[in-house]
Each structure stands twice: as structure tokens, then as C-alpha cells.
Amino acid sequence: MNITVLRSDEIYKKIINAKNEDKENIYRYELMKPFEYKWQCIGVPLEAQNDGGYDVISASTMGGGYHPAQITEKMLKEVDKISEESFWDNCVKSIRNTLEGFERNGIILLIQNYIFTVLLNDPHNPMSTMTGDYCGDGGIPGYIFGTIIPNETSIKMLPVALAHEANHNVRWQFMKWSSEISLADMIISEGLAESFAAYMYGKDKVGKWVKDTTDDMLHDIIKPLIKENLYEKDFNKLSLYLYGDDIMAMRGIEPAGIPYCAGYACGYALIQHYLNKTGKSIYEATITSTEDILRETEDFWS
Q1: Together in a domain, 97 and 169
Q2: Helix (H) or strand (E) run with residue 145 in it
Q3: Which domain holds residue 3?
Q4: Residues 79 and 188 reside in one and the same domain
Q5: Residues 6+ apart with CB under 8 A from 173
Q6: From the CB of residue 16, how many other CB atoms can be counted at a distance below 10 Å?
Q7: What backbone phi and psi angles, to 5 degrees, belong to 116?
Q8: In the predicted model, is pLDDT for residue 129 greater than 80?
Q9: Tens digits of residue pLDDT in 184-210
Q10: Residues 66 and 46 in one domain
Q11: How many angstroms separate the Cα of 234 from the Cα of each of 139, 253, 263, 296?
Q12: 243: closest CA among 266, 220, 273, 221?
């Protein structure tokens, strides 16, 4: 198994020292191009088709990242915080332990080459405000992003998020993405990933997308909403139930009374119920179909 580490700290320093007219090209071709296939899978071109069009830079900025023009000497302290060898070692260790753990449990991964980096998020970006100081993206097998607003806590917690993302990397090698993906597929994927991170690092380390949801909110509001829309396949609609009103409002979607990351919280509770009921390991559960998990958890919705 090969995990390639793209040292974003070195690229950020290069951008800081570059002329303004060169910053975008360094960001686009040195930081984003190694992930070009991942971007293609979600319909984001490396370069916009026209001035001001959608591309990897605008997508990254919408997700909470800095625009290349913002990457100046003022960011040196932030970059230095992710320049320690121990930081990168801990991140890669989390990913490697996750992937190798599946193979030790008899699950042969279809992909053996992975690339990983960490992007700095802008604390003033509205999306960063919503998602918190650390997060990630690992839905396309072979490609893993971590995102961080670096501080003492987020530096310690990012490896937890990366275990979550590496779990996605495994599941989506076996559950192929298609236009028929449903809300049920998505909440189960997120529930498995967060349950795996909890298995690796402890249940006290679950993300705010789970921790901030009270039992009453889960039972009285979220579960009925999710149950009613489990088989929704319209991507904007299922995303609303997955992420909640506040995040989707940033994408221009009208609110519908959906709490923050409702699908994540519901998925985590569902998978915890499934694991407790069946006695299956999180490794086996990760490659179990949505249909089989739903069949075993009909009592969860009562």
C-alpha cells in the first residue's frame, strides 16, 4: 500500500513568496492538480471554462479554504503550525492504520495507491464557521483531504477526522457511486465513518456534527424527518437532510427546518444501534450494503 503525502505547508510557503499573478497557478497546478481525478468525479474542472467560472479554486474557497490571493505573509504563523514533521506523521499514521486495519481483518482493498494533503481553512469563511476547526473529505477512493484551522485542539483532532475520511475511502470502493444514491446510503456512510473514528480514538472524540445533537432532538425531530425521506434521491434534497438548513443555505437552498448535520447524527446513532444489535465489527459493517443494514435496524425508527 502506498500513501503519497503532498506537503501543502511547502506549497503554501511557495505561494506566500510568489508574485500575485503567479499565486493562482501554483495553487491550481501544485496543490489541486494531484487531486484532479477526485475533482472530475464531482464535476469540478481544474480550470474554469470562462472568467469567473466554477473551478477547483472556487470550489475549495466555497468549502472554507483560502483563496490564493489571501495566501500572504500574514499566513506564515498558520503555515508554521502545520509544518511540524510530527503533525504529518500523525495524519498519515491515522490513514495507514485505518486502511491496513481492513486488510488485517480480511478485507482486500481494491485500491492500493492513495494521496493525501491538508488544506488550511479561513476562520472568517462562513463554511469554516459551520464545520469547525477541523474536517475532511474522503469520498473518492484514493484521495483524502484534511482541512484545518490550526490550533492545539484541531491539530490533535485532525487524525480522528482522517480516520473518518479513510473509512469513506474504503466503503466507496465497494459501494459504487451512481445517480441512484439515496439519503439512506449517505447517512449510513456517515454513520459508519464516524463510528469507525470513535472505534479508533474513543467515543468522546466524535465530531461536533454528532456531539452537538441532543437525544431529544435526535428522537423528536431528526429521526422522523430522516425516516420519511430515506429513499430521497434528488441530490439537493438529500443533501438538505444530510447537512441541515444552515449549511445548505450557503448553497442557495431554502430552509426546511432541518437541524445542523441531521443526517450525520442520525447515521451515527443508526450504526451504533446496528453494531450493538448484530455484534458485527465495524470493519465488516463498513462493507455491508445499505439494504442489509436497514433490514437489521427496522426497530431503530420506532
Answers
A1: yes
A2: strand 143-148
A3: 1-174
A4: no
A5: 109, 110, 111, 141
A6: 16
A7: -140, 145
A8: no
A9: 999 999 999 999 999 999 999 998 888
A10: yes
A11: 18, 13, 15, 25
A12: 266
